[in-house]
Specification:
about 190 residues, 7 helices, single chain, mainly alpha, globular, Ferritin
């Protein structure tokens, strides 16, 4: 279960198909950011031993996905370059409380929600896009994204207990649903 408070509309798939190169480029950036976020948590919280192996493994897998998407971009002659990110991640991170353990709980929970939204949108692409290679790619990524969602949820539960973690997850899921619904001029994995 992905614990999202809303579902992506069919309109997003239509926009994504119409701007597929842009979505693929954004996807590469998302994988790199996901690896960076996990690594940042490793450096910021070395005293939480229970985070170390799961986040190191998650970061490694995200970097593998980044490389996989880079190769796809190259195969399709899509230039890897900087693009304007969606406001989604920044809006979610504005919800992070300042002091620990609440701060770490929020960072883990937001990471879980981002992974859940990625998983949901990859499923939409896998099922709806008229491109067999991309459909297969997105199907192959679903298992990892769902596992990453579960990893972040489990780490949050280890930090503060399952009941507190799940309560905060529900709260932030409502906020995430409002944020993802905001209009965006670009189509991105987490916008549009």
């Amino acid at each position: 279960m992905l614990n999202l408070a809303s579902q992506t509309t069919s309109e997003w798939l239509l926009r994504a198909e119409a701007h597929l190169d842009e979505v693929l480029l954004d996807h590469a950036h998302c994988e790199k950011k996901a690896a960076g976020a996990a690594i940042k948590l490793l450096f910021s919280y070395p005293h939480h031993r229970f985070l170390q192996e799961p986040l190191a493994e998650l970061a490694r897998e995200e970097l593998e996905h980044f490389q996989q998407i880079l190769m796809l971009l190259d195969a399709r002659s899509i230039r890897y370059e900087t693009i304007k990110p969606s406001p989604y991640g920044m809006a979610l991170h504005r919800l992070v409380r300042r002091d620990d353990p609440d701060r770490l709980l929020d960072l883990l929970t937001i990471a879980a929600l981002i992974e859940a939204r990625s998983c949901e949108r990859f499923q939409i692409l896998a099922d709806g896009i008229d491109d067999a290679v991309l459909g297969d790619l997105y199907r192959s990524l679903l298992v990892s994204e769902a596992r990453h969602h579960g990893t972040y949820r489990e780490l949050a539960a280890q930090l503060v207990g399952r009941e507190v973690a799940e309560t905060r997850l529900a709260e932030l899921a409502e906020a995430e649903a409002e944020i993802i619904a905001r209009p965006c001029e670009w189509v991105r994995v987490h916008a549009g």
